[in-house]
Amino acid sequence: MTQANLNKRLDLLHENVEGVMAMLAKVVTSGEAIDDLVVVVADARDPVGALIAQAQAKDSPGLDVDALTARARATGKIPTTITVLPRRTAIRLFSPPSPAVVPEVAQPIAPGLVRVVVVAAGGSTLVGVPVDLPTGGGSA
Which of 18, 32, 11 has the alpha carbon at shortest distance from 125? Predict the structure, then answer.
């Protein structure tokens, strides 16, 4: 991983922190524990990000990845999807395309942080992002 690619992933996360928190809040209010979750922020132009976006579109009828990409291109932004997954699902999802993040996702997370995997620039990076939401009673 080059520093430039890492910086691109971190920039994408920074641009989408509000969206991450909004998606996370929806899931947490339905009873999920933050320490059992992984938020995925994916650049739909990235090969793995595109696969994640297409899979997410199958489960979200209102999500049109082609329209998302066109809108982003027109505004000079990165076409981005944000999804929240149970940790076990994220481990299965990233095992083939990004095995380096799997051991990190499997590890317990410090209190007050949520796992965020950013998929962009040809790779994936796990970041522990501070969160100020009810944590629930997870099993980290």
Answer: 11
Between CA 47 and CA 112 the distance in angstroms is 31
- In this structure, what token pair is assigned to residue 121? 């620039």
- CB neighbours of residue 83 within 10 Å: 21
In Å, what is the CA distance from 3 to each residue of 6, 38, 75, 126?
5, 23, 26, 15
DSSP per residue, the chain: --HHHHHHHHHHHHHTHHHHHHHHHHHHHTT--GGGEEEEEEETTSHHHHHHHHHHHHH-TT--HHHHHHHHHHHT---EEEEEEEHHHHHHHHTTT-GGGHHHHHS---TTEEEEEEEETTEEEEEEEE--S---S---
**129 phi and psi angles, rounded to 5 deg:** -105, 130
Q: Residue 134: what pLDDT?
A: 53
pLDDT tens-place string over residues 125-135: 999 999 976 55
pLDDT at 20: 96
Would you list the domain boundaries of the chain? 3-130
Ranges of the chain with pLDDT below 70:
1, 133-140
